[in-house]
Amino acid sequence: MNRSQPALFRQQAEACDELGSPMYAELLAALADDLEAGGPTARVLRGHEDDPGPSGLALRLAGSIHRLVLAGEAGELAAAYPTVGGTWSTAGVPVVLDFLARRGDEVRPLLDHAPQTNEVGRSAALVGGLLRLADRWRHPVRLFEIGSSGGLNLQADRFRITDRAGGGWGDPASPVLLDRAWEGEPLPPAAPLEVVARSGSDPQPVDVTTEDGRLTLTSYVWPDMSERHARLAGAIELAREAPVAVERADAASYVERLEVVPGTLTVLWHSVMWQYVPRDQQEGVTARLAALGATATPDAPLVHLFAEPTRRTPEDEHRFWVCAEAWPGDGEARGGERAFLGRMAPHGVPVTWE
Ligand SMILES: C[S@@+](CC[C@H](N)C(=O)[O-])C[C@H]1O[C@@H](n2cnc3c(N)ncnc32)[C@H](O)[C@@H]1O
Questions:
Q1: pLDDT band, residue 263 (cuts 50/70/90)
Q2: Which domains does the chain have, with CATH numbers?
């Protein structure tokens, strides 16, 4: 066993604790101990001892077990998993270890899947940023996304978002509620966003209209984070009523085909995907946007909006910022100058606008 693997599990346990999952904080710490002691966890993970940290072995193992629970194939774990009506407690630890001891062979093949998520809460950042910018032109919006995963955030205009001051935006009857999601500087008075075209892209798109796609996205959301699960389920419900196309493409090749169209605002947005894009593709996206921006006019403007970990100044730490660039013209965010609009929590809610 690579001595660092239990340490990586403990690191992930701490991150889960900080981000609001006491269940995974406790479970992953216990799995780390069991791994170190050569218990069932070590047997299930045989061959993965040297998997690199960024491959997220702890989350792959936890997600694999969760997938079997969600699929109704691990009834003995149901009492411990809140996503299927159970309640997590410390008593769940030996039950999971016993499951790994008896049924580890069913878990092992699932470990090869990379964790794949689509965080619906990040729509709070993307919609808020767009409301701030779209107010300038008031054109119908053509919305495009890179790193879309299941494309759920391309439906952001169909969600309900409320702020901490008691205001709200979007359809009150939407199955997706991003509650108390905005704070700080108020956004412009609520104008409707008219989205006339939308499409996304991802090298590994998830088809949320299938049961396999639903299980994939649901299994990697930590089971005791009920608000994240409610948002995800609501967004999948909407997508099944009106599917959004997500084509299999990397960021650079997709953006290469973007065009601006008179009478519409063209928006390219993305969240928490840039770090996975190889440098040459990043440069391709940036160059294409600058070239497209040079052709943008007040009648055919272009906005690049993103919620990504980045530094505001070279001395700063990486934080989740909502940023925008817009073409044409001068002023904040115009002519491609990057504006920092607000800070986002890692899973999206809340966003603090500046
Ligand atoms: C952490 S997920 C975020 C998904 C979604 N944007 C969200 O905020 O929920 C990162 C996504 O980036 C995608 N990705 C990885 N490499 C990429 C690339 N070269 N170009 C575009 N997307 C990429 C992954 O497939 C994955 O869907």
A1: very high
A2: 4-112 (no CATH), 120-353 (3.40.50)
